Amino acid sequence: MKIASIVGARPQFIKCAPVSRELRKDHEEVLVHTGQHYDHGMSEVFFEELRIPKPDYNLNIGSGTHGHQTGAMLGAIEDVLRKENPDLVLVYGDTNSTLAGALAAAKLHIPVAHVEAGLRSNDRRMPEEVNRVLTDHASDLLFCPTETAVANLAAEGITGGVHLVGDVMLDAMNYNRALAEERSRVLEEVGVRPGEYLVITVHRPSNTDNRENMAAILGALGEAGRPVVFPVHPRTRKYLSEYGLLAEMPENVRVAEPLGYLDMIRLMAHAEKVLTDSGGIQKEAYMLGVPCITLRENTEWVETVEAGWNALVGAERERIIDAIRYLSPGSRQMGIFGNGNASVLIGEILTGLKGARSR
Ligand code: UD1
To answer: Closest Cα to atom 9, ligand 1: which residue?
Structure first.
């Protein structure tokens, strides 16, 4: 089969790496980068480290309001699909690139496969929630990472084409964990010792676009009583500087540029706790056995909360401080995210499809 894979944002590069490796054993892949993330540290570094083949197309769409960004991607992806005429379009996760890819394909009657289908936060104010719901409803094949995701789809009447395969981020983690330990010098570069620091990432509009939330989060970090490493996403840097908060950073917080995959994995693996509003980092913390404090009121990864390894604390100073001091999970339940063979299963399902088609 000829498969067009659409990626555009940092988490999608990580997800596509193991899947692309499997697909290319049996299929022809056309890799399309929308250009949603374009800084070297947000894009190229992931292609290099994860050894993802160079995209066949870079659409260079870049930043914009949601409507403009998604609309520009929709038109540009349609042009590529008309030219390449693939048998299937593969999309990942929940970004504007995901929705644009799914919609462009569905309108051209090309089957759509969605990796990381069925996730729900039940918060329609999150742009990602709208992207997920619409993408799932436009998809023919839905690859779910968890049982909860399968149940979420069933609750919306989607049962055909649904496959529980596990999480491709676990595949990426297993593949790169040892390599991260071998190659990354991030702890030494930042100047922190294993087990004696926290890591934080913040990039969700619900936090970044709200001065009060950012001030509360930074205030709590100032009370942490140990170093906090803060790799800053470009949107967050822009807002912190506008709010005047970059200049008022607590002295124990070490601000860094966005990190590559291997550095981030090693930094998280040796942290005492991780604070984040990212979806992917909540999962990665669990996979690494590091307690996670989530700076949101809801999550798609409810299993990590139920297991006691993830605390939802919003952007409230006191709740964050409490979690930094007291969050102490018990034993880790394995298997939430599958067996680390999600990309193999996806490859097998697609190859079965190829057999079915050629008969
Ligand atoms: C996007 C995804 C989000 C995902 C995140 C991972 C959507 C709706 N959101 O959010 O789900 O978790 O990626 O990082 O698709 N910018 C740069 N350089 C870059 C990229 C972005 O400076 O390489 C800045 C620009 O100011 C831009 C802002 O960051 O306006 C936001 O970028 P955008 O890709 O629109 O959304 P993210 O916040 O990264």
So the answer is: 95
Measured CA to CA, the distance from residue 323 to residue 45 in angstroms comes to 33
Within 6 Å (CB) of ligand 1, which residues are found?
9-11, 36-39, 42, 63, 94-96, 127-128, 203, 234-235, 238, 278
| Confidence bin at 354 (pLDDT 50/70/90) | confident
| Confidence (pTM) | 0.96
Give the per-residue pLDDT at 316.
Answer: 98
Q: How far apart are CA 55 and CA 104, in angstroms?
A: 18
* One CATH from 3.40.50.2000, 1.10.10.60, 3.40.50.280, 1.20.1740.10 for 2-167+338-358: 3.40.50.2000
The matching CATH number, chosen from 3.40.50.2300, 3.40.50.2000, 3.40.190.10, 3.30.365.10, for 176-326 is 3.40.50.2000
pLDDT tens column, 259-304:
999 999 999 999 999 999 999 999 999 999 999 999 999 999 999 9
206-261 per-position pLDDT tens digit: 999 999 999 999 999 999 999 999 999 999 999 999 999 999 999 999 999 999 99
Q: Check for a shared fold between 2-167+338-358 and 176-326.
A: yes
CA distance 67 to 208: 19
46 CA to centre of ligand 1 in angstroms: 15
Atom of ligand 1 nearest to the CA of 64: 30
Distance 62 CA to ligand 1 centre (A): 9
Contacts of 82 (CB under 8 A, 6+ apart): 108
Query: Domain residues of the chain, as ranges?
Result: 2-167+338-358, 176-326
Dist. CA 279 → ligand 1 center (Å): 14
pLDDT score recorded for residue 335:
84
The alpha carbons of the chain give a radius of gyration, in whole angstroms, of 20
Cβ neighbours, 10 Å, residue 107: 12
Please answer whether residues 304 and 282 qualify as being in contact, where contact means their C-beta atoms are separated by less than 8 angstroms: yes
